[in-house]
Amino acid sequence: MTIFPERVFSGIQPTGNLHLGNYLGAIVKFVALQKTHECLFCVVDLHAITVPQDPGELRQAIRRIAAAYIASGLDPVKNIIFNQSQVAEHAELAWIFNCVARMGWLNRMTQFKEKAGKDRENASIGLFAYPALMAADILLYRATHVPVGEDQKQHIELARDIAQKFNTDFAGSIAANGHDGPFFPLPEPLIQGPAARVMSLRDGLKKMSKSDPSDFSRINLSDDAEAIAQKVRKAKTDPEPLPSDVEGLAGRPEAENLVGIYAALSDSPRESVLQDFGGAQFSAFKNGLVDLAVAKLSPIGGEMRRLEDDPAYIDSILRDGSLRARELAGPVMDQVKDVLGLIR
Ligand code: AMP
Ligand code: TRP
């Protein structure tokens, strides 16, 4: 029976600005996992082009995600940091998974429904097949753990379904090709973290998102201290003072979101934040949150800008990362071809 060694894979799309939701929902977890696991962190540019992108902006956005990874503390020597389209096997395995996944499975994906909106007939086929490419990203490296925010859980479940179907549909050929047990692991999502779902600063019921038209809805990693302070001060609240226990946050989405952000940034439980601020007015709490957010985030933004001024350095990291990723991906792709009966 195959025992798959633990390996972590995750990716972020080079679209729009990286925000606090991406940072707390994903990157903070990456930074912790690099201490204990072999990790690959990808800039998923092929996912970005499932909707229209401006070529010049896309190139810059790819470098910006790489810069954010490094500025947040991911070590490009210890981890493999790379760009998806520079490893052709991602697209190759995605095609094979398009032939494994069922229309019915993809029809259930809520992100497609959200992104395609009302004009579904006009959505790209890539946007529909997006989760099969995501499954390929993960399974190409037989990754076992995938740190993501809550919104990606359904896609990881689909990757498990694809892995499972491949393993059973081709069980005979997998055994005949000398594999002792399942070919792909069933990857596990790692959702738990300081803040799996950071909400908009303008509406506590909406997810903080790159695509929100209002820049005041999110704190971008590239925001300077002044912008961070302004956005926190303008954040929507309710008229009551802060509660002194977590139960008191029920039915108060804005309070819950801001307290959650404070807890995540200070790496402390919400209970202890409310011990400090229970009974306080939002204005006092916001002063504390501004100081904390500026102290934590503005050095990352500064380092990102410094790195982005040196695109040749970023490109060299991505080139090196893609060479290392290809060394892992090539043999798996060869095995997939053998199992399917393709000639190589
Ligand atoms: P994306 O920007 O869609 O490529 O997302 C990159 C990562 O950030 C994924 O793991 C998402 O689940 C996570 N993420 C995006 N928005 C949020 C949010 N508002 N709260 C928590 N995690 C998020
Ligand atoms: N779909 C993910 C998102 O929008 C990004 C992504 C692409 C990803 N491939 C991945 C995340 C593989 C984890 C693993 O956030």
Structural overview:
The chain is mainly alpha-helical and 344 residues long. It folds into 2 domains: 7-196 and 310-340, HUPs (Rossmann fold, 3-Layer(aba) Sandwich); 215-306, Tyrosyl-Transfer RNA Synthetase (Orthogonal Bundle), CATH 1.10.240. The chain is built from 14 helices and 5 strands. The protein has helices at residues 20-33, 45-48, 55-71, 89-98, 103-107, 110-116, 125-139, 153-169, 171-176, 225-234, 253-266, 270-277, 282-308, 311-340; strands at 7-12, 38-43, 80-83, 145-147, 188-190. It is globular, with a radius of gyration of 21 Å. The mean pLDDT is 96. Residues 12-13, 21-22, 25-26, 148-149, 151-152, 196-198, 207-208, 210 line the site of adenosine monophosphate (AMP). Residues 9-11, 13, 44, 47, 134, 137-138, 146, 148, 152, 155 line the site of tryptophan.
Briefly say what this structure is.
With 344 residues, the protein is mostly helical. The chain is built from 14 helices and 5 strands.
For the CA atoms, what is the radius of gyration? 21 Å
CATH topology of the largest domain: Rossmann fold
Strand content: 5-15%
Structural class: mainly alpha
Spans where pLDDT lies below 50 across 5 or more residues = none
Tell me the overall shape: globular
What's the arrangement of strands in the largest beta sheet? 1-2-3
Query: What is the CATH class name of the largest domain?
Result: Alpha Beta
Largest sheet: 3 strands, parallel
Q: Helical element count?
A: 14
- What is the correct CATH architecture of the largest domain? 3-Layer(aba) Sandwich
Number of domains: 2
What integer is the average pLDDT? Answer: 96
Measured as a percent range, the helix fraction is 40-55%
- N-to-C series of helices and strands: EHEHHEHHHHEHHEHHHHH
**Ligand list:** adenosine monophosphate, tryptophan
Distance between the termini: 27 Å
